[in-house]
Amino acid sequence: MNGKQHKTTWILVAATLALATTGCGRVSATQSKLGTTAADVAAANAVPTNLGKVSLTSGGPGALHGRVLDAAGRPVAGAVVQIAQTGLRLTTNGAGVYSTTVPEGNYEFKAMATGMTQSTPAGVLVEAAKDAAVPDITLMPGNGPSGISSITYTQEAAFANEGSAPALLLAPLGLAVRGGITQVLDANKSAAVHTGVVRQYGQDGKFQGKFGDYTHWLGFSIMKDNVTAIAMDQQGRTLVLDENKKLWRFNTDGDKDKAVDVSVEGTDDLAVEPTTGNIYVAGGGLTKLNAEGETPQKLSAAGNVSAVAATKDAIWGIVENKVQKMGLDGTMQIEFGASGIDHPDTYQQAVDLACDPRNGNVVVVDRGTKQVYVYDPAGVMVGKVGAGVFDAPQAVAVDKDGRVFVLDAGKKKVYKFLPTVVK
To answer: In terms of domains, do 360 and 330 share one?
Structure first.
């Protein structure tokens, strides 16, 4: 809902009509579409004052491309190149090359890769042209600001598919972790029951009980099997969302505390912001509720948000098979489809994500590739969790110590992984 470090530095991309007073790199009158008058020639030879401005010949969108290399001049594949003014995040190919199109404007570039630090030139000028070449960005060996170059994860336990009913999972959908407690949102779709169930396991993985169906309380308001998402708030209470736009809350003993109708677009996922207790609901767009599930506020998320996670200063969402980092008001800060070394170009089926409460790292589940990836707050991949373990990873949660819990809907198990920082 930690990682390798990356190199971080900014390169100013400038489109200009001349470079330095030496005349090196000047653009001809034909290239710059200037006339042939004396004034035009003088203008073409002038030292530019608009450094960093990309002036495209047509005034419309144009192409930018560049390379990321290591200290030996070899291409760095899988590096992330961020264009600050646009929010774009590009991933270099096997030749270390990235490219995109941009409108006229000022652009800064930051390149990042695990275990590498960017070497920062003072400034670079790029000719005004339809296809602007960004000078090579060089990455040196080293760690980023946190001093971490990578994180590895060791499987510590697997549980929830041993013993007999009611401990066994039937149709697991979601996962929540807090204070040594693991809760799995399950749907009992047997012909005689059709209820939504929360199954709870202790720190040792032993089954502790279930609630939400007919176990603790009776009545017509029993959760049905159309439950969709689960989270735990700061008080350790359990929140469950269903397709009927009802938000259920249970006390720590499993007794129902309240069930309220909420005004949201959809009910794909929910997350609790750790300081205020505000609730974020994903589904279609992104809706912010207060800690009681009231005062709905539609946020300006871009696209269809299908999963959400929250830290004290950011919201992470899966938006149309990409990952977005947003401010608490829903304004997008960065977006990427996938990035990092040994990573697919795009997610096949990104289904869930969770945040590490210690450092803001985000863990993303891609059911299509059966992989779980870890990114730092800048969006650089710093680790992978449980490679080759999962059949159908469905949901993820992270506890206060950085342990990653993954719910596998295929194997009907919860896997727990212990992080190890490699410096």
So the answer is: yes
